[in-house]
Amino acid sequence: MTDSGHTGGFREFASHSAGAVVLVCGLFFLLSFMYLGGTADPQSHARHIPVAVVDSDRGASLDTPIGARDLDVGSQITAGLLQNNDWERIRLHVVDPEAAEEGLRDGSYFGVVRIPAELSERVVGLVEAAATESGDTAEPPPPARITLEYSPRVSIVSSQVMYTMAEAMHESFRERMGDQLLSQSELLAEAEGRTVGAAAALALGDPVGIDVTAWNPLPDGVSNASLPMFYALIVILAGFTGAMIISALLDARLGFIPLEIGPLALHVHVAPFGRLQTLARKWVVTLVTAPLVSGLCLLVADMIGVTGYDPWHMFWFSNLVIVAVGVCAHTIIAAIGNAGLLVNLVLFVVLGIPTSGGATPTQMLPQVFIAIGTLQPMHQAYLGLRSIMFFDSSWDAGLGHAVWVLGGWAVAGLLAGVVVTLLYERMGMRRQAVADRVPANRRADDGRSGGFVRPGRTVGVADTPATGLGESGEIVERDPAHRE
């Protein structure tokens, strides 16, 4: 056994290592669950994906041997959509054109089904053409068409949702509407002593075409709808990682921990600051750093040609994210020490990215992910930045909610930091000085200070032992014995 009390045996090694092994395994189990569980099969978790339906069809009249018949194909399509829809996966909203446009502008809808005003007239013209002489001799008229628009700004999977819906609708049109229209055309042709030609019958079998188009494509310089998520990750890391760097460097410069640089460890005697004053200094450095980092992010975005956003809105919102996360990260470290580094990593990154809604939309995440992401800073940062970059900084597109939630995080972090540090100080739990850490059987003096390094001295630990002043392996700066 050494004079430090350590035996160096296997049992001691195992007891020291067990905690680290458990923490690493636990962290990566959680990491695997969050990242694989949220992305392996998003379609199986899809629910309540909002899609608007706009029926503008005016209807038409079809002359038959037994009299005129009113035909409203738009109403039939709408009724079929509502009747056959999987309401657990897709939420259809039958709205007017103005409401649909507003919902697309604020990100409320993944897409919209647009039924044009002349749809029934086109279908009637197709039926009548097939029943007349042109149905035998001429090229049949083109089919009627409806349009499905998807919003590339709301999610990277919006196009997939609308293309899947288009395929299902097209199949339904051929199975149900095609046979019905062919029967009506045959009745008309029979009344005139004619038959429906093969080409006309084929056209009637596929009477309504579907076009899938993008509503308001992404701005110039952006081809990936996940860009707001990656921008959010940058500012979240600026708050979280920035807090780790600031905390470590300030603690080292104030003497609370050694600053290790290669083989050297720089020790500074503890500054006469309480816990709250130290924490406040870290908060101030974060406030100073936030606008600088935000400006650098905007500079890079401009350099690579990203457009379509208001730089001022990007700047102040990025500041809010960095400050909110940084304040909370500092508070967590002040409350639980080194364990706060792991807690911050889990809170802001491990739990944040999979629940953000950027890679996989919220409507396709497992319920537990949605619950976690409701108040997650990463999710709020993504919503706010998506609103600024893709929805003209619309307060209703998520920016308003993000501002309130992130503001709540900042206020909660400030209050919790003040309460915790004051509580520790009232309990007499001061941060330990370097001199207090010297083992009882070692001297750390210069022969004149009674066994302790004098206040105000700076101590550095080197590889080679030093004689005289300090314990073996220590060098005290500003002492004549160690000057060249």
What this model shows, in words?
It is a single chain. The protein has 484 residues and is an alpha/beta fold. 53% of the residues lie in helices and 12% in strands. The protein has 15 helices and eleven strands. The protein has helices spanning 10-37, 42-45, 73-84, 97-105, 119-131, 133-137, 158-191, 198-205, 227-253, 275-303, 311-336, 339-350, 367-373, 377-390, 399-426; strands at 49-55, 60-64, 67-71, 90-94, 111-115, 144-150, 208-214, 259-261, 264-268, 458-461, 474-477. The protein has a five-stranded mixed β-sheet with strand order 4-1-5-6-7, with helices on both faces. It has a four-stranded antiparallel β-sheet with strand order 8-9-10-11. Strand 2 and strand 3 (67-71) form a beta hairpin. Helix 10 runs antiparallel to helix 11 (311-336). The radius of gyration is 35 Å and the shape is elongated. The protein starts with 9 loop residues before the first helix and ends in a 7-residue tail after the last strand. 35% of the residues are buried.
